[in-house]
């Protein structure tokens, strides 16, 4: 039951993560707005520490994740760190992904309601800490994507699992192209649950932070009661669903591009082909295979597979070059390993799915299905 008096909050403040219990709610606030709340290893550890502490705390009825700054929940992982660590051979790179994927798994299997406020930019690692939520709230400012092929990576943080579970071939479309979608599309394909205006969301947050709540149901109802319809005019997928399914159900990336080329004069097809021309040919092929395999796996096995894949991305793939071009030198002209998709060999793609560890020695062995 709501009360006008709230007990003093218990807060644990990390430089970039504020974890506090207030009014019966565990609040996780990402506080790195200058980097659009991109995740560092220290932030991942702070989030994991708080969630594990709250999981069995009777004073915490639900957890709410939000981002500071008004522009993003979380724009992904700290890719400049990835570049520095990869070029230096720093083992902290694999430590980062190991601990991040453990956090993703914890969120997907969390024992209490976990509510993600997906306001603003939610991309890459931001999807990993929000897609496992029991309530995913979007606003008119939401910009959602798994854009990894643009920097020579693949949709990780469980992306091969949750993209494989959206309708039709939309997962392949989003993973291969890195297309950004907004609230209406996210709701229509099951990547969000509830929409409200950013001002309405701010009002709900104020109410929740000023009250004292006795149940998760009361907390979730505050969002559901304030929900509204998104702007359908910004939907991309619904209008193109037939073409997306036809194109992105093709067996190979070459087949997808051929199907797009066959839609001559179609603006959507031409624009999609143009997006793909800028992506890593190797990683588009790897991503397509990843999502297809993801339909037949558990989340735990998918996260183990993604850690295997990440070791190859920086050793044999386009990860270092892609991040260099986008975020380090910022010349936006990556020199991919392959000039075109036709140069990518099947055995190169298959190599990404070979684990460098024996199963009993895998860093994510302990994740349960």
Automatic annotation (TrEMBL):
EC number: 4.2.1.149
Keywords: Hydrolase, Lyase
InterPro entries noted in UniProt: ClpP/crotonase-like_dom_sf, ECH_dom, HIBYL-CoA-H
GO molecular function terms listed in the Swiss-Prot or TrEMBL record: lyase activity
Domain Enoyl-CoA hydratase/isomerase: 25-353
Pfam families noted in UniProt: ECH_2
Classification via SUPFAM superfamilies: ClpP/crotonase
UniProt name for this protein: Carnitinyl-CoA dehydratase
Gene from which the chain derives: caiD_2
């Amino acid at each position: 039951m709501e009360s006008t008096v709230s007990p003093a909050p218990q807060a644990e403040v990390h430089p970039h993560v504020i974890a506090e219990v207030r009014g019966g709610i565990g609040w996780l606030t990402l506080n790195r707005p200058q980097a659009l709340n991109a995740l560092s290893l220290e932030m991942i550890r702070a989030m994991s520490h708080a969630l594990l502490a709250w999981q069995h705390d009777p004073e915490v009825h639900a957890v709410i994740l939000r981002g500071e700054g008004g522009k993003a929940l979380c724009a992904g992982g700290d890719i400049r760190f990835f570049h520095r660590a990869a070029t230096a051979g720093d083992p902290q790179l694999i430590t980062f992904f190991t601990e991040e994927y453990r956090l993703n798994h914890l969120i997907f299997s969390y024992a209490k309601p976990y509510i993600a406020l997906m306001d603003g930019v939610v991309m890459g690692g931001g999807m990993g800490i929000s897609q496992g939520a029991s309530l995913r709230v979007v606003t008119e400012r939401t910009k959602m994507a798994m854009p990894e092929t643009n920097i020579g990576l693949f949709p990780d943080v469980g992306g091969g699992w949750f993209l494989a579970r959206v309708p039709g071939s939309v997962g392949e479309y989003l993973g291969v192209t890195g297309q950004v979608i907004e609230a209406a599309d996210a709701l229509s394909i099951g990547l969000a649950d509830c929409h409200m205006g950013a001002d309405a969301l701010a009002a709900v947050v104020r109410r929740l932070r000023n009250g004292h709540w006795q149940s998760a149901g009361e907390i979730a109802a505050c969002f559901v009661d304030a929900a509204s319809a998104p702007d359908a005019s910004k939907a991309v997928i619904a209008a193109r669903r037939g073409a997306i399914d036809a194109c992105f159900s093709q067996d190979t990336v070459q087949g997808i591009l051929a199907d797009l080329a066959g839609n001559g004069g179609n603006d959507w097809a031409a624009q999609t082909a143009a997006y793909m021309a800028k992506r890593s040919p190797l990683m588009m092929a790897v991503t397509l295979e990843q999502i297809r395999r993801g339909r037949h796996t558990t989340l735990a096995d998918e996260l183990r597979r993604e850690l295997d894949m990440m070791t190859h991305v920086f050793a044999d793939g386009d990860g270092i070059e892609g991040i260099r071009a986008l975020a380090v030198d910022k010349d936006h002209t990556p020199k991919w390993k392959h000039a075109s998709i036709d140069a990518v060999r099947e055995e190169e793609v298959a190599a990404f799915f070979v684990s460098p560890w024996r199963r009993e020695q895998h860093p994510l062995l302990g994740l349960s299905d």
